[in-house]
Specification:
The protein has 308 residues and is mainly α. It contains 14 helices and 2 strands. It has 2 domains: 59 residues, no CATH class; 230 residues, Cytochrome p450. Its cofactor is heme.
Length: 308
């Protein structure tokens, strides 16, 4: 089925949607026998609920998945069974905390007012073309770094700076995608020789890990000082460090790997899915002026109610 996919590569989403519609919402893709590209695509909410909720234990990710997603380490997106349950329970506990909810709301509002709006105003006045996917990814990366790491990398500015750890983050994700579309022996051979995409991945991992371990070290020092801890807010890394210190003490160097993997997984989950959804939302609004008008009417009506 690969030739058909390549022919439709310029409109891959429309092609996939059409294929799913013609097959009742679920379709199996057969790739070349040597490429490890056989997979099932579904848009049926019942299937998604069955796999991710009702019968999650029946769908382990397995060792092959973990090898491909090596940059994620042992975080929740790469784990199964008891490890997955324990991490999920802890994440849910932190995310239901009112302090964390307030922090996320505050961070997003700050990035909207100080980052996204000024950029959109600027390109609108200059009548410049801007890549909305890049803009929204920068917005989500900054927001998530603030909520997860307690650190603002300031990727979302009018200058569109190239931030080393953010660029490394992108390269890591590209390498994982690359591992999906080439035979396992090929990317392993590249890794062994340190050439091609695997060489890029190794360098990106080194850059990103230096950034992550620096954040962990900084937050751990802050956690030891009560006054600074209270001022720092409730970012997830600080919350995890607090738990780790209770369990392992201050000399828990072995737990730094867990903190690195956990924070990396949270950044991956918190950036790409929301940013992809927002980009599609803006595209759909742009394609449907009537919907845009109704949204603007609701915003104006809400503002009038607030003023009253």
């Amino acid at each position: 089925m690969l030739p058909r996919l390549l022919v439709n590569s310029s409109n891959v989403y429309e092609y996939t949607t059409r294929t799913l519609r013609n097959n009742g919402g679920t379709s199996k893709f057969k790739g070349p026998w040597f490429a490890n590209m056989d997979f099932v695509i579904t848009s049926d909410p019942r299937n998604v609920h069955h796999i991710l909720s009702d019968n999650f234990a029946n769908y382990p990710k397995g060792p092959v998945y973990k090898k491909i997603f090596e940059p994620l380490g042992d975080g929740i997106l790469n784990s199964d069974s008891e490890s997955w349950r324990a991490q999920r329970k802890m994440i849910q506990l932190f995310m239901k905390n009112n302090k964390y909810k307030e922090l996320v709301e505050k961070n997003i509002l700050q990035k909207l007012v100080q980052g996204l709006f000024p950029i959109l105003d600027h390109v609108s006045r200059k009548e410049e073309i801007v890549d909305m996917q890049d803009v929204i990814q920068r917005f989500m990366y900054d927001s998530n770094c603030m909520s997860v790491l307690g650190f603002d990398p300031n990727c979302l500015t009018i200058e569109f700076p190239e931030v080393a750890h953010a660029k490394a983050f992108d390269i890591m994700e590209e390498a994982v995608f690359y591992r999906h579309i080439v035979p396992e022996f090929y990317w392993k051979f590249q890794k062994w020789l340190q050439i091609g995409e695997e060489k890029k991945l190794s360098r990106a991992l080194q850059t990103f890990d230096q950034f992550m371990y620096k954040c962990i070290s900084t937050r751990a020092k802050t956690e030891n000082i009560v006054e600074e801890k209270e001022a720092a807010g409730f970012d997830l890394l600080t919350a995890y460090i607090k738990v780790q210190m209770k369990e392992h003490g201050n000399s828990a160097a072995s737990s730094n790997k867990f903190l690195r993997d956990t924070a990396t997984n949270l950044l991956v989950a918190g950036r790409d899915t929301p940013s992809a959804g927002l980009v599609w939302f803006f595209w759909l609004v742009a394609e449907h002026p009537l919907v845009e008008s109704k949204i603007l009417e609701e915003i104006r009506a809400a503002n009038l109610v607030k003023k009253r």
